[in-house]
Each structure stands twice: as C-alpha cells, then as structure tokens.
Amino acid sequence: MSVRGKVDEIAVRALRSLLPPRCLLCGAPGEGDRDLCAGCAGDMARNQPCCARCAEPLAVAALMCGACLKHEPPFAAAWAPLRYAHPLDLIEARFKFHGDLAAGRVLTDLLCAAFDEASPLRPDCLIPIPLHATRLRERGYNQALELARPLAARLGIPLRIDLLERTRATPAQTGLDAAARKRNLRGAFAVPVGADLPRHVAVFDDVMTTGATLREAARVMQRAGVARVDVWALARAPQRR
After folding, report:
1. Fold of 47-236
2. What value, to the nearest 5°, has the Cα angle with vertex 64 and ends 47 and 113?
3. Which pTM value belongs to this model?
4. Dihedral of CA 184/172/86/208: which sign?
5. Mean pLDDT score of the chain, rounded to an integer?
C-alpha cells in the first residue's frame, strides 16, 4: 500500500471512531464498517433462482428462461447477484441520482461480497458502461464506473474505460418498454479504432433492467472481435410480463 493509501486508511478509521456507521435505511447502528445494519442487509433480495444465461429472475429453478431459449443473447453469460427491489432500489437511487457517496460505498460492499460468494468466471478486464459526455457533465460521475472500480481492484484485473465509447446521446431509458429501449440504443456504442482487445471481457452496469444496454454493448464488443463477452451488474430487475 502506498503512503497516500496508508494515510487515507488511518483517516477513515479515525473518522469511523468519531462517527460510527449508521444504517442508511433505518438509522440503526451499521454492521462492521458498513452504513447498513444486519437486518436491512438481510432484506436485500438475492437473485436466485435466475436464468443462467441472462440472469433474469425466475420463480422456479431452470437452466434458461424462455426468452433465451427463443433468442440467444449476444453474450456468453450474465451475473447480477441481487434483485432490483426494495430496499436496494432506495440506496441505488441515492447513489445514482443524488451523488450519495455513503450509498455508493454500501453498494460497492454488497457487490464485492457477492462476488466473493459466487465467483463467476473471471474475465481479462472489466469495462463499465460509459455515459455520453453530455450526461456525464450533467451528473458529474458515472455510477457504473464508480461501482466497477473497486470490484476490479478486488479482483486484481484491469478496469478499461478506453475500449468502449458512448457515441450518441440517447434519451433516458426510464419509462421505455423493452422494444423502445432496444431502438433507443442502436448505434449508441463503438469500440475505438485500433483498440487492443482482450479475448474475454465483462461489461458492467449498475442495474440490468431489460438488458438492452448491456446487450447492445456486448454486440459491439463481439463485432469488434472479442472472443467472449459476459455482462455483469449489481442487480437485475424482474421483467414485467
């Protein structure tokens, strides 16, 4: 660890001794160093059972969901350890739309802990879904990047933000159905010309809703010559039928 890292760690410990962690959801004492109590952590819905191919939440265990059996997705496998439901959605909204760093730390802890439990196939690098420059200026940060950064560090694999570009500013996906989301994202991503691509990558987003964003990114990576593309997310939203 660098001198700067040691100083930061000491500062964090000193701050924690003065201001012990409190649960962001109920205000109870946090568990360990996390701003989340054991009870609220237990309320986070695990994404099991789910489709082994696209991580779609299922009511009963099955190898693949009907949609994947009908149309093979453009990625090899998906990993999304939690279901996007209450109370995870409250913490995610605080982080994504309000810049709450404490909420971001909680999500990072949940993500890294889930990987330690599940250990999906480790890729050569992790690629966060990029924001268009316009959206990045509005929000000030890319939530997918901020969650992917500590996970890549935990895994000891490169975090690559130079292999996928957002080439078109698309309207927000919120409120669009699956077909509209797919149309909205056509031509939204590109791999830079001359990029040195690994054989196996995982593309990461914070939440996988219909999967349109990650599917389009996976298609682009495949067309550019990546041998295997997986998609990862913190959480998967159940589909509305």
Report:
1. Rossmann fold (3.40.50)
2. 25
3. 0.85
4. positive
5. 87
